[in-house]
Amino acid sequence: MINREVSTPLSSQIYQQYREAILKRRIPEGERLPSSRQLAVSLSVSRNTVNTAYDLLRSEGLVDVRSGARPEVVALPEVEGASAEGSVRETAPPLSSRGQRFARNHRYTSPDGRGSSMQPGEPSRALFPKEQWARSLRRAARLLNGNALGYEHTSGLPELQRVLAQYLAQERGVVCSPEQVLAFPTTQSALSLMSQCFSEEGDVALLEEPGYLGARSAFVAAGLNVRALSEIEQVKRASLIYVTPSHQYPTGRRMEMGERLTLLKQANERGAVILEDDYDSEFLFEGRPIAALQGLSDRHSVIYIGTSAKSLMPGIRLAYAVVPKEHVEGLELAQRASGALTNVHVQMAFADFIESGHFRAHLNKIRSAYHDNGVALCQLISERFGNQVGVSMPTGGLQTCFYLPETCDDVAVADVMNQKGFGVNPLSVFYLGEPKRGLIVGFAEANEKLREGFVRTLEMALKVTGDRLASSAELN
């Protein structure tokens, strides 16, 4: 009945076993348990151990313990649908339709598990500035005061809001006051909240094609009708438009000024809020960055979203959104209700990291390394595959697209690549309509050894999937 070889206290073991037996009706109502003396002797434990177990049962209302009498099992209410063994139902209640939308997986998933090397959007772990970040964390621990550690400032520490407002104004042309900057744990949590707060179920949301699957997930979960941005002329009204104008995900294309101004006009005509995900804006390899859409607009129709996931690491769990001044109070309340709140220690450390100059120095370092790795990978692909694989030199970011022939099954190729440890994505799954075929490949950590291994694996994957396709054609 009890196990002296485990770390669980003997009193807890006695309590847990009696508790389970009573709840499952194996010990019926009104039955008396052994006296503490009897049970202690039979189990070779002290009476104090048994009394502790009985006290726990009594505190839960499972037994009635009276002075001089053995504990008696009390009457428990019958649970509707309960079986004789006490189990309520064999299956859990189903998810609601909203829950099913939230749980729908729009992302590519390899049947053999996700490869860890060269994942799109994955920054270099080797280049993470551990010492500088550790200093900022220690400084943050000293600077945090009582208000910051309580329930105040749930949508962002004033220190971080001030630093980010200044940084975004200087680097991205964002026009805002500090209180308009809301801190989120992830870009996805910001997209989810904005999708819920700026749309009604059944509204149209427009998404780039190919487009970020996280935005599609947020729109679908909110019950929106997701359509390709290329169809905007056919749409009279839309509630949301999602774009990555600085470095389009996943193609890497930059939206030119004329296109940006046209999009602002189209959004205004359709009453849409633009969700501007300033994806990879820190990693422009050539030319000068174009100012954010938010700074070009009247600032009522664009919500700017940024993150530290690419510039530092995803595990930092810190993103931010610049929202219209008129909606700050409402969105703060909605954010608190959703629980999408960010660790104050990390917020303070990130503010210090930026203000100390470490952030800018870190960006300069990794920007150079990512450029070299990306260019070298693309050159190697061109040398080995020629015109069999379409390559465009990266102009920034952490990933690039390699285009495959339209007859190629890019999902099958990606499955093989992931099986061999390379976490690539098939391009076709990022389309709402007729897809192009290719692979989305991260290059932040693509050193010479990884690049060579990637090319060999891609050659093998194309051969293997080509053989499979040929066999399938013969069978049909």
TrEMBL record:
Pfam families, per database record: Aminotran_1_2 (PF00155), GntR (PF00392)
Domain called HTH gntR-type: residue spans: 8-77
Region annotation (Disordered) ranges: 80-125
Keyword DNA-binding part of the UniProt annotation: yes
GO molecular function: transaminase activity
InterPro entries registered for this protein in UniProt: Aminotransferase_I/II_large, HTH_trans_reg/aminotransferase, PyrdxlP-dep_Trfase, PyrdxlP-dep_Trfase_major, Tscrpt_reg_HTH_GntR, WH-like_DNA-bd_sf, WH_DNA-bd_sf
CDD domains noted in UniProt: AAT_like (cd00609), WHTH_GntR (cd07377)
Cited PROSITE patterns: HTH_GNTR
Keywords associated with the record: Aminotransferase, DNA-binding, Pyridoxal phosphate, Transcription, Transcription regulation, Transferase
Family: In the C-terminal section; belongs to the class-I pyridoxal-phosphate-dependent aminotransferase family.
Descriptive protein name: PLP-dependent aminotransferase family protein
Organism: Pseudovibrio brasiliensis
